[in-house]
From TrEMBL:
Alphabetically ordered keywords of this record: Membrane, Transmembrane, Transmembrane helix
Bilayer-crossing regions: 32-53
One Pfam entry name: DUF3105
Extent of Basic and acidic residues compositional bias: 1-27
Protein name: DUF3105 domain-containing protein
Region (Disordered): 1-29
Length: 222
């Protein structure tokens, strides 16, 4: 049993490293495309018009999705992980979204994600951007002022070493330390709680990920 779990963990780490290399390749390709993109002025104007129409449509979609998300609830499993009971929407919107949970674990979100390549934010970040990171398979570590400085420091060190993770303060959350992934969430007692490692192993690029392998860089950094 222990050997199988170790093999699965090694396989996931290798897969994440492969995704990171692929993402770096995409970044290099994007830089080349950026140099040539300046000549496509007309196409840019057309795209701008299309984006305006899409944004107006997104605003309507967001209002509708709020009521759908609110109809769900968390269901706590035997392992202590809470799972959202209904399917979470994935529309891109341009305005803030009223999520039925804090911190949110999914739903409509901004088209730009927060960088989640082991990024630690000392200030609060916008939910609509963090949710997009969860869609890409990231684990979001959050804490409030009740968390000890030692725990915050230890968790930050773990996040910095983990691709597809991010960390930020969320003062309004119910418990001092919480871990979130797309559709899943749990509270942990401290940075040394074994459930921290288990949550990371399970949900960093886990089966719940709507868009596995999507970028965790080239988004927002603050």
């Amino acid at each position: 049993m222990g050997s199988a779990k170790k093999t699965e963990s090694t396989s996931r780490k290798a897969r994440i490293e492969e995704m990171r290399r692929a993402e770096q390749s995409r970044e290099r390709r994007n830089r080349v495309l950026t140099i040539t993109a300046s000549v496509i002025v007309v196409a840019g104007l057309v795209a701008g018009g299309a984006f305006l129409i899409k944004s107006q449509s997104d605003d309507k979609d967001s209002a509708a999705s709020d009521s759908k998300a609110a109809s769900g609830k968390f269901v706590t499993g035997e392992d202590g992980v809470k799972k959202w009971s209904t399917k979470l929407t994935q529309n891109h919107v341009t305005k803030d979204v009223k999520y039925p949970m804090e911190p949110p674990v999914g739903g409509d979100h901004n088209q730009v994600w927060m960088n989640c390549n082991g990024d630690v934010y000392e200030d609060a970040i916008k939910n609509v951007n963090a949710v997009h990171s969860l869609e890409h398979g990231a684990v979001w570590v959050t804490y409030n002022s009740k968390a000890s400085d030692a725990d915050v420091k230890a968790l930050a060190e773990k996040v910095k070493k983990t691709p597809y993770s991010l960390m930020s303060p969320v003062e309004d959350q119910q418990d001092p330390i919480m871990l979130s992934a797309w559709g899943h969430q749990r509270t942990v007692k401290s940075a040394s709680d074994p459930d921290v490692g288990t949550f990371f192993e399970t949900y960093v690029q886990g089966k719940q990920t709507p868009e596995p392998g999507a970028a965790c860089t080239n988004g927002l950094s603050k």
